[in-house]
Amino acid sequence: MNAIDVAVIGGDGIGPEVTEQALRVARTVLSKRGIELKETPYDLGARRWHATGQTLTDDDLAALSGHDAILLGAIGDPSVPSGILERDLLLRLRFAFDHYVNLRPSIRYPGVPSPLADPGEIDFIVVREGTEGLYCGNGGSVRRGTAHEIATEVSVNTAYGVRRLVRYAFEVAAARERKHLTLVHKHNVLVNAGDLWRRTVAEIGEEFPSVSTDYLHIDAATIFLVTDPARFDVIVTDNLFGDILTDEAGAISGGVGLAASANLNPEGAFPSMFEPVHGSAPDIAGTNTADPIAAIGSLVLMLNHLGIREAANDVQQAVSTHMAQRAELAAAGIPYEVTTSGVGDAICAAL
Ligand code: IPM
Ligand code: MN
């Protein structure tokens, strides 16, 4: 491979700042390996919406679909009514490009402060469904604003959607050392969807005899995530449970500023999209204090997805080196002061 063609959506709040650091790292690592990085910025998010009323047009989608991958910062801004940018931009991208796998690894770098007194080893990956569940926008409101209002959101779970996601999760688990897959759901209450997910894991599990499985209700899973995170290897779950669990996972492993994610269309019919788990953090936008590690980790996922494994490994190695320096400082009682550009400098220097 001698060139990659990446669409860049900086988005809102801290999105553009952290994405810029990921791009600096990408330019550095790729130029060393003689690979050209073609970057095409897309002006999407609050600024564009205020200026034009547009979130994501069909033309935007058509243009985006021509790239190898999409690197995204963050979407969401308090100046835009809640849900507009989330639904019509971010979720529309995930749905339009059939990003049915939302991959969210959780790794705690040694010595990095965690809110858990004794976190133990944290090295698991959440395989979150990305195109179904309660995120479908399937629902409505009747008698809105009256005492008799009824608001519904109906979770959609198709055999097709659950099967392809569960199969992907088994493949991920089979390739890992511990080969353990935990289904997280709530089948004691969500009897229909819960039953479909459970049957699907049982059925597909027969094709993966090397992978052990267990099951946790979502509420219990949130407890085990803080009491015994080491028990987890691969978690497979639906869209909303996965959303909630991965924020918690980010927090216990050192903060959502470190948590990377990939929205994958594994078959490659559409470009996959890589973004931090965190949001746009408007309160610290423009202050150069957001940690870009999640964005840089998302770049690692992107390079791996594009098959540029040596470059991905180089960046991952540089991140680990940098995180070890942070741990050393923490051990000496000097907390590392994150600046967005400073972290980018450090990673580029380590490459
Ligand atoms: C995430 C975010 C999004 C989600 C929001 C912004 C729609 O929280 O990527 O986790 O709920 O998926
Ligand atoms: Mn979330």
TrEMBL record:
Which cofactors does the annotated protein need, by name? Mg(2+); Mn(2+)
Domain of life here?
Bacteria
GO terms (molecular function) for this protein are: magnesium ion binding; NAD binding; oxidoreductase activity, acting on the CH-OH group of donors, NAD or NADP as acceptor
Q: Which InterPro entries match?
A: ICDH/IPMDH (IPR050501), IsoCit/isopropylmalate_DH_CS (IPR019818), IsoPropMal-DH-like_dom (IPR024084)
* Keywords in alphabetical order: Manganese, Metal-binding, NAD, Oxidoreductase
Q: Specify the Isopropylmalate dehydrogenase-like domain's residue ranges.
A: 5-347
UniProt protein name: 3-isopropylmalate dehydrogenase
